[in-house]
UniProtKB/TrEMBL annotation:
Organism: Maribacter dokdonensis
SUPFAM superfamilies, alphabetized: Alkaline phosphatase-like, PLC-like phosphodiesterases
Record InterPro entries: AIM6_PI-PLC-like_dom, Alkaline_phosphatase, Alkaline_phosphatase_core_sf, PLC-like_Pdiesterase_TIM-brl
Matching SMART domains: alkPPc
Name of the protein: Alkaline phosphatase
Family (UniProt): Belongs to the alkaline phosphatase family.
Length: 596
């Protein structure tokens, strides 16, 4: 599908992204040059295989140039015998395969030899899902009908074919890409080249035949461009890599459908050199710079988060590993000490460490935790519990009995009894929490329907707004808000989920910044515990809210993650530093001294 009257910036990415329903196939070009010809292509599940053939001394020999011919490299040995075996083994059941034979020697003599040899393979020529196509040196167009029904041809022209019987013998249309562009597959096609290429594809499709370019650049950018432009056979010398890439586009290219309305701060008290009264610490679990970039670009190019001016980066390594988990990172932020992975509120030797909610409660602060995870999850529990392993869910839940928290909102957990016995008045309506006068309040998010609905995307923002209202009494407060499921979708390599959860998190950020502007004496710090998924975003389209994602792992990575701050003393959070220094910086701006 192409709309040539649209601006070129839009054209370059037009395709049927919703499920990638456009049909395309992968063609293993020069397949005989692979270390395992035919079988490697079949294993990669390509739909078309190309082999160059010379007819010499009564043999059909496979080679690109005549001086490369080897006596044992015959068409039968490298392709016809394996293809017959694949059919016999049922490896082509419910699949189609095109064997494109590029004739390098005399057209008539070579083709006659090919026909004669194929007749010795009835399983191949009678297979409904196998098509033999002759390319390279071919007889005249009008002669196509003189060859058996099992022989088809590669048409290398854009001229109309008026003879219906001849047209039926044409399997596809192939052209040299270099006739239309010198693009090397990096960056993008120029506007003029794009027009030339798409016009050629349109003319080919007017013949009602599949289309292929040869002499193409061989890269992910090129493969995606050809898919988007409607090329039916994607030409490649890297069949496995190409198939893996193009078949994954349906999962990795998403169009965002939910948005965060950007809040523009007034900056009246931002970076003011005075002690803030309240602290709101927000943690996007797994929310690295690329996750943020993806969400920015899918949200019309900006977020409330990206309006902030005080920006830094933290290094996330734990005490015992290059790559932290959420427990090690959460504990470092909450206690100011690097610790081992899996540890909750304990040091490297397993001893309990004071956390921010405990320290600040002693200084008269009301404290609370909001998370889209369970309250016993690694990040939230780092702010109230002390256990040597994050898997000790019941023990972690029991720590709420002695915690200093006034508020929690989380997903329901198996340890409900421990939590509700800790003295929290449980609310069924999160909207009612803001006006509550109870001394300790808790609530569960409704998780009966996790689909992408407005209420689900808005729930963290609603909880944040009401949590702030509840804590904002006569005393100062500390609130930790976690957007936990960015991490979950990162582990699953689900870019749609990452963007949707990041939108939800940004809506919560908006509520925190709005309050900071209204209050004038609140410091908001937004960061992540680590990055998840090794996410990159090679391509996309801001206008269409589209993102192409590429993940390198299903786990956390060791990359630095950003810190954003807003309000009095936000400038203290600029620069590059260790994750445990967030604790130190928070106490510094509050002018609270603590012995470690």
């Amino acid at each position: 599908m192409r709309l040539l009257k649209l601006p070129i910036v839009c054209l370059l990415f037009i395709s049927v992204y919703a499920g990638y329903t456009q049909e395309f196939k992968v063609h293993s070009h020069n397949d005989y040059k692979q270390n395992i010809p035919f079988w490697k292509a079949l294993g990669a599940e390509v739909q078309s295989v190309e082999v160059d053939v010379f007819y010499k001394d009564g043999k059909l020999l496979v080679a690109h140039e005549q001086n490369e011919i080897q006596e044992n490299s015959t068409l039968a040995r490298l392709y016809l015998n394996p293809l017959q075996e694949a059919i016999a083994l049922g490896l082509l059941n419910n699949k189609s395969l095109q064997l494109l034979i590029d004739v390098k020697s005399n057209a008539h003599k070579t083709l006659n030899a090919i026909v004669a040899e194929l007749k010795e393979y009835p399983a191949i020529i009678n297979a409904d899902n196998v098509k033999i196509v002759i390319s390279g040196n071919r007889p005249d167009l009008k002669e196509y009908i003189d060859y058996p029904d099992f022989i088809f041809f590669d048409y290398q022209s854009l001229q109309p074919v008026n003879n219906t019987k001849v047209l039926e013998k044409i399997a596809l249309v192939s052209l040299s890409f270099k006739t239309y562009s010198e693009w090397n597959g990096k960056g993008r096609l120029t506007s003029q080249d794009f027009i030339s290429v798409t016009e050629a594809i349109d003319k080919a499709h007017a013949l009602n035949k599949p289309f292929r370019f040869w002499a193409t650049p061989d890269s992910k950018s090129a493969w995606k461009a050809f898919v988007d432009m409607g090329v039916n056979y994607i030409n490649t010398d890297m069949p496995n890599e190409c198939v893996t890439y193009v078949t994954s586009l349906k999962d990795r290219v998403v169009q965002n459908s939910v948005f965060s309305k950007v809040y523009y701060p007034n900056f009246k008290v931002d970076q003011a050199k005075r002690v803030p009264k309240n602290i709101i610490l927000m943690i996007g679990d797994g929310n690295g710079l690329t996750q943020i970039s993806s969400t920015v670009l899918a949200n019309n190019g900006e977020l409330s988060l990206t309006q902030l001016k005080s920006i830094g980066f933290i290094k996330t390594q734990s005490a015992d590993d290059f790559t932290t988990d959420s427990a090690g990172a959460g504990t470092a932020i909450a206690t100011g000490q690097k610790t081992n992975n899996r540890a909750i509120g304990t040091n490297k030797k397993g001893a309990p460490i004071l956390n921010l909610t405990e320290i600040l409660s002693e200084k008269g602060f009301y404290t609370g935790v909001i998370t889209t995870d369970e309250i016993t999850g690694a990040t939230p529990s780092s702010f109230y519990a002390h256990r040597t392993d994050r898997g000790m869910a019941a023990e972690i839940a029991s720590d709420l009995n002695i915690s200093k928290l006034k508020l929690f909102i989380s997903q329901p957990t198996k340890t409900v009894k421990h939590i509700e016995d800790a003295g929290f008045v449980m609310k069924t309506d999160i909207s009612a929490i803001g006006a509550s006068v109870d001394k300790k309040v808790g609530a569960w998010f409704d998780h009966s329907n996790e689909s992408v609905t407005e209420s689900n995307v808005q729930k963290l923002a609603l909880a944040t707004k009401n949590g702030i209202s509840y804590l904002n009494k006569e005393k100062p407060f500390f609130l930790m808000v976690e957007g936990a499921k960015i991490d979950s979708y990162g582990h699953a390599n689900d870019i749609k989920g990452v963007v949707t959860e990041s939108i939800s998190f940004d809506r919560a950020v908006s509520e925190a910044i709005k309050f900071a502007d209204e209050d004038g004496n609140t410091l908001v710090v937004i960061t992540a515990d680590h990055e998840t998924g090794g996410l990159t975003i090679p391509q996309g389209n801001v206008v269409r809210h589209e993102i192409e994602a590429d993940f390198t792992t299903h786990d956390h990575t060791g990359t630095m993650v950003p810190v954003f701050a807003y309000g009095p003393m936000s400038q203290e959070f600029q620069g590059v530093y260790e994750n445990n220094e967030i604790f130190d910086k928070l106490l510094k701006v509050l002018k609270i001294a603590v012995k470690k």
